[in-house]
């Protein structure tokens, strides 16, 4: 009830710093861009992050006198600025202020996924003793056939 004194995290910059290969932020006003970003994030190998800013008219909007859901969508439309490719450290914004909200596809890079890097590192370190992580994963179809026996 007394607010929050802590500065909020810049989640896009945090994800970028953690090594994400894809980072984006959209509001619920940007439906088509959001859909494309989610599809792109799911197609990428490795860690992807899509931040979705969505309205909460029943509590946040009412408490802060922003209005109903339609008014909050208008606020997203007015404040959002598409900045594809901008450095994530420049994507911070004040939720409670009236300044711009940077949205867009910020990071889209290709590099080996963590598991690929891990397997390569451990293979160099342990040599022939290392069993790559992907090799011990079980295919549900072949595993089910194995336990079904010859009768099926």
Topology:
Blueprint: H1 11-17, E1 22-27, H2 31-43, E2 48-53, H3 57-63, H4 69-79, E3 80-82, E4 101-108, H5 114-126, H6 140-148
Parallel strand pairs: 1-2, 3-4
Antiparallel strand pairs: 1-4
Key features of this structure:
152 residues; alpha/beta; elongated; four-stranded mixed sheet
Describe the structure in your own words.
The structure is a single chain. This protein is of the alpha/beta class and 152 residues long. The protein folds into two domains: 11-108, no CATH class; 114-148, no CATH class. Helices cover 39% and strands 15% of the residues. It is built from six helices and four strands, in the order H-E-H-E-H-H-E-E-H-H. Strands 2-1-4-3 form a four-stranded mixed beta sheet, sandwiched between helices.
Count of domains:
2
Q: Biggest sheet: strands, sense, closure?
A: 4 strands, mixed
- Estimate what percentage of residues fall within beta strands: 15-25%
- For the biggest β-sheet, the strand order reads 2-1-4-3
Low-confidence stretches: none
Mean pLDDT equals: 86
Give the proportion of residues in helices: 25-40%
Structural class: alpha/beta
Categorize the overall geometry: elongated
How far is the first residue's CA from the last residue's CA?
A: 62 Å
Number of strands: 4
Radius of gyration: 22 Å
Order of helices and strands: HEHEHHEEHH
């Amino acid at each position: 009830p007394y607010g929050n004194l802590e500065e909020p995290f810049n989640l896009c910059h945090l994800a970028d710093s953690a090594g994400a290969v894809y980072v984006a932020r959209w509001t619920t006003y940007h439906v088509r861009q959001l859909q494309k970003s989610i599809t792109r994030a799911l197609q990428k190998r490795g860690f992807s992050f899509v931040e979705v800013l969505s309205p909460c008219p029943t509590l946040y909007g009412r408490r802060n006198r922003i209005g109903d859901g339609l008014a909050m969508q208008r606020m997203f439309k007015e404040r959002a600025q598409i900045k594809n490719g901008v450095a994530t450290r420049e994507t911070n914004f004040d939720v409670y202020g009236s300044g711009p909200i940077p949205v867009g596809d910020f990071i889209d890079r290709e590099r080996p996924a963590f598991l690929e890097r891990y397997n390569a590192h451990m293979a160099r370190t342990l040599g022939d003793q290392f069993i790559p992580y992907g090799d011990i994963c079980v295919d549900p179809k072949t595993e089910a056939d194995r336990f079904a026996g010859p009768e099926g």
